[in-house]
Amino acid sequence: MSLIEAKNLSKSYGAIRAVRDVSFAVDRGEVVAFLGPNGAGKSTTMKMLTGHLRADEGAAAIAGFDVADQAVQAKQHLGYSPEGAPAYGEMTVREFLRFAADLRGLADPAESVRKTLDLCRLNEVAAQNIDTLSKGYRMRVGFAQAVIHDPEALILDEPTDGLDPNQKFEVRRILKEMAARKAVIVSTHILEEVGELCTRVIVIAKGEVRCDESREKFLARGPDLNAVFRQLTA
Amino acid sequence: MSSSETPSSPGLKPFAAMVRREFAGYFRTPLAYVFLAVFNAFAVSLAFFVGGLYESGIASLDRFFLYHPWLWAFLAPAAGARLWAEERRQGTIELLLTWPITVWQAALGKFLAAWLFLACALLMTVPVALTVGWLGDPDWGVIVAGYAGSLLCAGACLGIAAIASALTRSQVIAFVTGFLACFILVLVGYGVFDELLAGALGSGGVDEIRRLGLWRNLEPFTLGLIDVRPIAYFLSVAFAGLGLSTIIVERR
Is there a domain that residue B114 lies in? Predict the structure, then answer.
């Protein structure tokens, strides 16, 4: 059983077909780079995988649980950070993580918060309101709420968007630390992340999967990844 | 971290966390204190200066409760505007709906927290009742019934506010539409408005519609009458609003 499964997912917004017949499965130990130009259908696919958007056709499952029919079980095994890492700005980092831990019904929420603050190196801002944080910290808070329950499936929508090189390095470090035990999907339009982070690449354009292959195969397509990307998404 | 820390049945903990966060959320901004102050100022001054509670010489709170439909029509949408609109504006709705809590649990948690907040506002007016008790010899049972009715009326207005909030990402729009909808329910049952309606519908139709007014349903409580119909009316409006707002959130 794959931890993250998309089966023939399709979604339209009015006349626009945002995602057409997208299928793939991600197993434990895989970190998938979900690549595509802006508006390619990356976020829409991720939203369907998390159960936030209902697919017009097809189905999605997390850890074997259908995200529509067994939503609560599926969500218990899922960590998700939406694009832009939204959070309750008026709460402190610690309060927010505690809320996430309580809402997930974790057995020892205080301990989970402590571990997550350590893991994501958020201790120095733990007592600060999220509204007052820099973008780098905010993205890390979004990441922290997604991993607080140590989920088997992790879906991150542009987790390094807008971060400086040091912050990007930090997010990748944490991801690498936990990747072996999880199935991870990371959406991005930053090609350098493919080489540094992922084991597999899925390229999506105009709502369709254009390529789904191992990192090595993808990197072997050519020395200039930008040219490869342009060709695949044309 | 060990894998799969999630217990199989978290029980009521997630729901309790939801209520706690939402209730505390009101006090994280100055809005809550402004709200409580405005509610109290208006509740007291309307009763004394407009209703002539003191001049009436009667140890009763019916002139105090008389204005509560107006107060709730204005202030329940003010407190309820943030319920969903704020989640949409901040984008946190996407988090909330991908956490392992059903939309119904989230909606009920939010609703109860908001209702509890309105109950706090109402509780702060107890000195008015104590004043009446000090000046005269009121029937405390009637006063308690009045408070219960007012709280139910607040719940009904909050139900309407929840629908308005579920429809938009702007708290201002949520407040204005919620207020307008509640305002119509306040007007129903008032003389001038009834005459207008009678012209259009005939007196039989007006009588049916009058039953839908907030004051018409609150009045029996202020007289100490606990009747099933007004209780059913307030609770159905409250829960219909809660249900409809949940369906709207679920569908989007």
Answer: yes
**Residue A108: closest CA among chain B residues belongs to which residue?**
B5
B62: Cβ contacts below 8 Å, ≥ 6 apart: B146, B222, B223
Contact criterion met (CB < 8 Å) for B21 and A99: yes
Amino acid at A54: R
Cβ separation of A104 and B92 shorter than 8 Å?
no
From B3, B6, B98, residue closest to A105, measured CB to CB: B6
CATH number at residue A134: 3.40.50.300
Task: Look up the pTM and report it.
Answer: 0.89
- The residue of chain B nearest to residue A88, with distances taken between CA atoms, is B92
Q: How many domains does chain A have?
A: 1
**Unique residue bearing structure tokens 């959070």:** A87
Predicted complex ipTM exceeds 0.95: no
End-to-end CA distance of chain B: 35
Q: Does the distance separating the beta carbons of B7 and A105 come in below 8 Å?
A: yes
Mind telling me how many Å the CA of B100 is from chain A's nearest CA?
5
What residues in B contact A115, CB-CB < 8 Å?
1
| Contact residues on chain A for B97, CB-CB shorter than 8 A | 51-52
- The Cα B124–Cα B173 span in angstroms is 28
Q: Count of domains in chain B?
A: 1
Find the domain containing A71 and state its range. Answer: 4-233
Q: Which of B5, B90, B95 sits opposite A106 (nearest CB)?
A: B5
Separation CA A206–CA A233 (nearest Å): 8
Give the structural domain span for B164. 13-251
Tell me, yes or no, whether B190 lies in a domain: yes
Interchain contact, A105 vs B13, CB within 8 Å: yes
Is B6's CB within 8 Å of A149's CB? yes
In a domain, B130, yes or no: yes
Per-residue confidence in pLDDT tens, chain B, 252 aa: 444 444 445 678 889 999 999 999 999 888 889 999 999 999 988 888 887 777 777 777 888 898 999 999 999 999 999 999 999 999 999 999 999 999 999 999 999 999 999 999 999 999 988 988 888 888 899 999 999 999 999 999 999 999 999 999 999 999 999 999 999 999 887 766 667 767 776 666 677 777 788 888 998 998 888 889 999 999 999 999 999 999 999 887
Q: Do B4 and A119 touch (CB under 8 A)?
A: no
Contact across the interface for B14 and A105, Cβ inside 8 Å: yes
Q: How far apart are CA B151 and CA B230, in angstroms?
A: 12
Look up residue B4 and give its DSSP letter: -
For residue B5, being part of any structural domain is answered with no
Nearest-Cα distance to chain B for A109, in Å, is: 10
Give the sheet arrangement for strand A31-35, strand by strand.
A78-81, A153-157, A183-188, A31-35, A200-205, A208-214
Nearest CA in chain B to A100: B99
